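Key idea: predict the complex, not the pieces.
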Amino acid sequence: MIRLPLVLFFSAALFSIGVYGVLARRNAVLILMSIELMLNAVNINLIGFSNLWKDLAGQVFALFVIAVAAAEVGIGLAIVILVYRNRETINVNEVNLLKW
Amino acid sequence: MSAQEYAFVVFALVGVVAAVRVVTARNVVRAALYLVVTLASVGAVYLVLAAEFVGWVQILIYVGAIVILFLFGLMLTKAPIGREALDNQSRGLALLVGLAILAGLVFLIQNAFGWNDPKVELVQASSGVIGESIFRHYVLPFEAVSFVLLAALIGAIVLSTKDERS
Amino acid sequence: MVGALLHQAEGAAEAVAGSPGLAKYAWVVPLLPLLSAPLIMFFGKRLPGKGWILGVGSVGAAFLLSLGILWHFVENGFGIYAASVDWFKIGPLQMTLGEYVDGLTAVMLVVVTAVSLCVHIYSIGYMHGDKRFTWFYVVLSMFTAAMLNVVIADNLFQLLVGWEVMGVCSYLLIGHWWEEHVNSSSAIKAFLTTRIGDVPFMFGIFVLIAATGFTTSNIQEIGHIVAGGAISPAVVSIAALLLFGGTIGKSAQFPLHVWLPDAMAGPTPVSALIHAATMVAAGVYLVGRMYEVFIHANPWVLQVVGIVGGITMVGAALLGLVQDDIKRVLAYSTVSQLAYMVTLMSAGPAGRDAAFFHLFTHAFFKALLFLGSGSVIHACHTNNMSEMGGLRKKMPVTFWTFLIGSLALAGLPPLAGFWSKDELLVAASKGHEVVFVIMLATAVITAFYTIRMVMQTFTGEYRGHGHPHESPLSMTGPLVALAGATLFVGFLGAGPAKAVFFDWVFFEEPELVELVPWIALLSIAAATLGVVAGYLVYRRWRDPDPVRAMGPVSTLLEHKYYLDDIYWKGIIKPIRDPLSAAVYWTNQKILDGAVNGAARAAREAGDGVQVVDKNVIDGAVNGLGQVTGFTGGLLRYLQSGNVQRYAAFLFGGVVILAVIFTRI
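Result:
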């Protein structure tokens, strides 16, 4: 017996922390980590609602999210390494060719 | 409050604190380790919420593989190890946005459900049931996800191959 | 259309005695030169010969047709053919275009077309190389058409139209070489002076039409109404006097004679055609046609006519005596001869017939004399007789033809002038003794100045500086033709030769012409006296000319009795100078002021519009561009290149949208 709002608050908290991390960090890998936080928040949300509606779809999709997150991390790191190879840095502030 | 709630709150608090440390740590490796804690607590929360399969998969994949990937990435990109500023100038804006999001979400949740309701009965979901659900009703997304994984695999290989001509 | 007109004309025909024959087509005669005038104007320059072919051709055809019409009268005797076409109505007055052809008309048609043809042919040589050659022929054709129209007109308005067109053509032709100021001012003088005579003429027409109750302008009908006594003699007299005003102007009688000598500034063929044979004769013709009106007026009207004629006759002859310019001698001679005819008009029906006969013969020999003088002028390049002389040997054809013409003018038998002068004297002797004496005296003076002219020009030694030679055939041909005519036409009215002329031209009944011996002898004597005197005086060149050395008499004559000066100082200057000053002032201050003011206003409006355009419109457009650039300059700072910043805004926007979409 769990009060759903608690779950949702937890999810919200994680999500906003993840947003802060995405916006505030300089290192590209750390940004990716923050993105993982956001994804996890979403998963918690899904699980919570799955329990509310007694529907397994929530859990199934949480699994899918995990899978996709894994794929995304792989690709993301590959890109980060490529950028590092080209620019000797993964400071996102220095990848600013679109600056005016 | 029931026992599950207690457990949940404990794990949630741990997770939140660790998450905060992830985004504020000065040391990248420490950030990665805090991430481990966060992910593990999330897994524990899954277990408390009677989602066994998902919980163990979470531990397996996230903590077991993804964090390792992160560590490898940090090592390969010569992440600065030591105390160095890792935050950029937009910290204020980021804080603002983060708080805004938090406020928005809290508002929405409170508007929809209030503070205490509804009370959820937990449902046991064994892996057999989950498997049955996946392969009966959600085969298509399953296949799609496998394609995604395949594409990611190939993409990662392509991206990281050194260009032989240059 | 012509056929329809013909049918209509035939339908409206009046009394026709016998079959009309060619007289039916009398209206074609003025039509031919009328059509050739615009043709020459538009196509003349491109034709070979520059248009004289068209002119000569049309007038030649008209001449042949006129001969045919005259032949009809010769064959069938007297007859009348009249036809008219209704044109439009003014109130009760019906305006028509019509023709009235009787013997007089036929004779006049022949005279006009014959002289015009000779002038057309003569001008081929005389005007050769002139820069307005084609235009000359245009106006000649137009003039001929107008005069022919006057001759065949059956109503007063049609006659008036032809009358006025002749005036305009005369102005155009006198001023043909208008680059010289003296030529253009002579043309204006001629036009205005005849206009002064035309005003009473027009009022005479109006009086007559009003007197007939505004029903008709037809000459014959008016004549019948007047003869019927329906109009009071006072009105008729006034009308007659007013009509005579036109004659005074057009036929250069005292006091409006002043334009004719100055009109000699025009080319000589013009003088021959207009101022000898045709236009000036129109005045006499008018009196003759409207003779019913003159006869039935109070007797003092005819006396006035006679007095005017008498004064002019003598005065002009005396003036012709002192001229050095050969054309001016002929001009004054014309005035004097016209006065003869006018004076005779005052002597009753017999006088009218005699006057027409003199008109007929005078046309031929005066045209001959003018064309001959033109030949001499062309050869010597001067008009002055003091620079001529001895041309008898160098220009034989011109000399002999000129001599024939001069003797005819002087009135020696058996030439035309003798017979017509004899008619004049016979008519005058029947009750008008004063006229008789004046005519006799004038005959002496006429003979004298004629011989003076011949002697000074053709005999003695050549006093000029050029090399005169005989003129080309185009000029001598018409001279010979006219000389032949002069020799021949006299007999048409001669008593011994049955005077056929008066079978065609008569008033109320044919005249019986008698040759009264003592009158004939008297006129021969007068003419001979003048000729012999002239011969004796001018046998040798006298310097100074004795005529001019007669002291105050000469001075008076040379100044033309000071008439021109009186006109100029007393009438023209007081009217012209204030009038033109006023007109000039109006033009400069009012008209030009309005135009300049409008232009200034437009320009200032333009300046104002320019200010608006520059500052407001351009300002708006430029300002728009500047604002865009400015805001763009500000907005570009959003492109920081920092992905996280973009993401921050993205998340912020998403939150806001989420709240909005779910709660609202």
